[in-house]
Amino acid sequence: MSMFDQLIQKPWEIDQSKIDDLYVGAGSPGVRKKVALRVFLAVVAVFFTLLLTAYGGRMVYEDWRPAPQIGLLWANTFLLILSSVAMQWAQYSVRREKMDAMRVGLLAGGAFTLVFLFGQFLAWRQLAMMVSFDVTNPAIGFFYMITGLHGLHLLGGLVAWGRTVLKVWGEFEVATVRQGVELCTTYWHFLLLVWLVLFGLLFTGNNLDLLLKLCGIR
Amino acid sequence: MEHVAHDASDFSRLAEVGEMELYHPKTFIGKYIWSQDAKVIAIQYSITAIGVGLVALVLSWLMRLQLGFPHVFSFIEPSNYLQFVTMHGMIMVVYLLTALFLGGFGNYLIPLMVGARDMVFPYVNMLSYWIYLFAVVLLMASFFVPGGPTGAGWTIYPPQAILKGTPGATWGIILMLVSLIFFIIGFTMGGLNYVVTVLQARTRGMTLMRLPLTIWGIFTATLLALLAFPALLVSCIMMLLDLLLGTSFFMPAIVSLGEQSAHSGGSPVLFQHLFWFFGHPEVYIVALPAFGIVSDLLSVHARKNIFGYRMMVWAILIIGGLSFVVWAHHMYVSGMNPYFGFFFATTTLIIAVPTAIKVYNWILTLWHGNIHLTTPMLFAIGFIFTFLHGGLTGLFLGNVTVDLPLSDTMFVVAHFHMVMAIAPVMVVMGAIYHWYPKITGRMLDNSLGKIHFWFTFLGSFAIYLPMHYLGFLGVPRRYYAVENIDFIPQSAHSLNAAITIAALIVGAAQMFFLYNLVWSYFRGKPSGANPWNATTLEWQTAETPPQHGNFGDELPVVYRWAYDYSVPGAEQDFIPQNVAPRDVVPSNDKK
Lengths: 218, 591
Hints:
The complex is a heterodimer.
Chain A: H1 3-7, H2 14-20, H3 29-59, H4 72-95, H5 99-128, H6 138-167, H7 174-202, H8 207-214
Helix pairs in contact in A: 3-6, 3-7, 4-5, 4-7, 5-6, 6-7
Chain B: H1 28-33, H2 38-68, H3 78-114, H4 122-141, H5 171-200, H6 213-244, E1 255-256, E2 259-260, H7 268-301, H8 309-322, H9 338-350, H10 352-366, H11 375-398, H12 400-406, H13 410-440, H14 446-473, H15 490-523
Antiparallel strand pairs in B: 1-2
Helix pairs in contact in B: 2-3, 2-4, 2-15, 3-5, 3-6, 3-7, 3-13, 4-5, 5-6, 6-7, 6-8, 7-10, 7-11, 7-13, 8-10, 10-11, 11-13, 11-14, 13-14, 14-15
């Protein structure tokens, strides 16, 4: 039953009372973790949307100076896509109880993520060594802050990933591992999506500028 | 309402509800310090919040002493005054009210009222409290660092918040920002628990529309907080980077104290947008739990079902949604496109509609009710007065043309204190008088409670009614001294002194409350399980106070909504939510 349908019920009426009595109660621990992750992802989505909005809000001022583009980010993006594909492979495998393939997928996902983070660090260094580097340029400040916060979210994901990795050796309960892999995969896909939006709009040219112009804001 | 006692044969067989695994502590430390039990965490949150709130109360006394009797208290320097203003505001709004309503009442009431053994992630819930405590310690530490706490105002607007010349512009503001970041991290952990527990841990029969309004209020406020606090988080991070790494998100090129700052290109107005995108929903993060709780208090103590339950739920949700599109009404004087001002004034006025519906429904709940003027009920009725008063002055300030002359005057101070300080505190007090018997097994002393109420209620009006008048005169807020200003007459200074005396009396009256809390814990009259004859599940526990796991061997099964009071045909004037229709004792006329 949709949320809207529930909200129009009249709980004090006898007919509704009979229907309400059929509500079976609490969800399983697995469902709870899924719901918690979704709510958390909504919070993270708001967080990055606000950063994006702040970027756009600052961009509309006349004195805006774009940050130089860094080619390495394309390679990093490719690595993050690979990590997400590897996690998807791990999820596909664990659902079919192919545990060796799941282990490979999981480890590859984490490894690609670590390389991505190292790549981001190299991108930071590249920018810092450019002649046009100026810490008081908001565009450069935003670049460091947004990539840093995205990286921190990935590091947090790696903690959960590490806990799952520790469970997949030796004897383990398939259902628990399956859930861990599924939650990690959802999180990885989400952070890839966030990165693609940030990368596409902010770090590959004047795309956000174009979008703002299309919306008539700039 | 006769339908409530319908035939048991109508029931279909109910499915079994899933039990959760609880962590059972064996040591004192595990049980009461590093506790994973939501009830203990609730008490930890409440004691910490009230403790830090008392610090903020003392700060308000110091402010009022300076305003009422300038130059008498030589230890209050202008910079101290600004620090008191700042810390009082931030502590009261975030560290007291948000923490108390969501961390305190949320933790205690959600599992009990939805029929769960505990929050769904008890370990994360425990972490939430300890991170909150760390945030409080960081904030309090700012009183002891060089330069003292920040004096930038609770809105911590850049550029002045981090410029030399503002009190606490180095360590003070750093500690404030870091403390807020930890607060938000801790809250997010708790908030996820509250939301998922309400959505996924309700017992058999407890549909969403059978939830008490207290839960609806806390649930919606938690959603607001989860979605609004990221804006504060973003602004704190950006300001910290401006301060520590020299970025220029908010800091423009500026000459301060004769020196050109190293910053360039930042936008202070961007901070204001981010801050108020959090700041306005914050008003409702505090107000919505109060709305929910007061609805339940009125219904229980008037022995009548809440009027317009569905409308009350919808109003909570609509207010929550609208609270995200009114933020710029705090920024009319910052300069904005006139169309924006029109838009935000319109949304601000629209939010008055669902709010008014709630006020009407509270009054209609009282109408023809069997009103018991217990202490919780007095505070609940007091809330209606104070909230109505503060809400109506909010309508004035929501209009751009009225706001411009009144902005930054004492009128604004009076408005927001009535609507989001006194009104929610009335509910906090009413709620504590109401649920204290469940938490401790003892009643709070009624006479002390009534003395406490009347001093607080009448005293609040003695403080804030005249303050509106000061605002009309143009007396500015946040000023250390307002003497020798042509447009401020001597009578305004006399009024300021009277307000200070009233504030000191109201503050002192809170000692009745604190004394009552401690005295009743040891000597109060034993309450029994359900002293108010209430219907909701927290009053139906096997033991009072409820033990670890809340409900003994079996979780309750819910058969009705939360407001079956004075049901025709039933012997008692209340039918608990877990009483099956077949178990309802008919009244003597029907026997």
